[in-house]
Write a structure and sequence with these properties.
The chain is mostly helical and 179 residues long. It has 2 domains: 29 residues; 148 residues, Lysozyme. It has a two-stranded antiparallel sheet with strand order 1-2. The longest helix has 21 residues. 31% of the residues are buried. The mean pLDDT is 91.
């Protein structure tokens, strides 16, 4: 019985080793790497962080649409996209363009850079990406959530707190698997 159990375990390990790329892609997909690299570099972002945000937001599904009408890989809302497109000088921008992976990653990276310029820290950027910059500003101004106005002692929205932790976890996993 012990021999059979050991052979099954050995078989499973061999299967996993021989199929590691398939398993890796199924569990932790990594697509659109050329766009991630291009726009991460252009906007001075860590491509691993961008990958982790995409995994968290859409699991790399380009046609994803959330219940809050956020679109594409980086789950950008119509309002944020039109504002960003205007600031970026994108002509004839339409919400439909958010389904295009390159456009979505370009705008998402620009927006993350914009948040980074305002907030500085990765935790605040991620919190603002999820909950909105106005909420993060309010939290920083509230002594209940920030003792110094620059860092958060807690994130009052459970969904946002969970989001930040999830992106940070995926960051570590992507760094290990792909970078």
């Amino acid at each position: 019985m012990k021999f059979i159990r050991n052979m099954v375990i050995l078989g499973l390990i061999a299967f996993a080793v021989l199929n590691i790329n398939t398993i890796k892609e199924a569990v932790m997909p990594f697509r659109y790497d050329s766009y991630i690299a291009e726009y991460s570099e252009k906007y001075g972002l860590d491509p691993v962080l961008v990958s982790a945000v995409i995994k968290t937001e859409s699991n790399f599904e380009a046609d994803a649409v959330s219940s809050k009408n956020a679109y594409g890989l980086m789950q950008i809302t119509k309002e944020t996209a039109h504002w960003a497109a205007g600031k970026m000088g994108l002509k004839d921008f339409t919400t439909e363009m958010l389904k295009d992976p390159e456009t979505n990653i370009m705008i998402g990276c620009w927006y993350m850079r914009n948040l980074e310029e305002e907030f500085g820290s990765t935790e605040l950027v991620l919190a603002a990406y999820n909950a909105g910059r106005g909420n993060v500003r309010e939290w920083l101004d509230d002594p209940q959530h920030s003792s110094d106005g620059k860092t958060l002692t807690d994130i009052p929205f459970p969904e946002t707190a969970s989001y930040v932790k999830k992106v940070e976890l995926f960051y570590k996993i992507y760094q290990f698997l792909y970078f």
